[in-house]
Amino acid sequence: MRRRSRQRVATEGKWMDAEALLDRWRIVDEATMVDVLNKVCGQLGEVFPQLAGLLDRTELLGRLPEIFGRGAAWRFHGWILAERGPSPDLERLLAEEVRANPISSEIADEIRGYAATKA
pTM of the predicted model, to two decimals? Predict the structure, then answer.
């Protein structure tokens, strides 16, 4: 009877059993989810340091105009705020944009509608 060989892969400069490598990334409960998320964020920070910070919503909101320009930044800001449901901050943002650019009212209405589903 022939014994089934286990596949081995090189990772982090050493050889490892493929099954063990997969187990490092397997999510089975909240603790492993946190562990895997930390590993992913750590590796993302090493490979794409300028993008890793954007996972933090506060940093992302602060950099929207720089990334997308003023014309599009308000839309992204609105959608992010809408994820939390209707709020005075969201309404202020949408009202200011529609006052400055009445053509934006359709987009503002869509964002308001999305926020209403999160209430």
Answer: 0.61
| For residues 80-92, average pLDDT | 96
Percent of the chain with pLDDT over 90: 47
Q: Are 60 and 79 in contact (CB under 8 A)?
A: no
CA distance 112 to 78: 9
C-beta separation of 85 from 119 below 8 A: yes
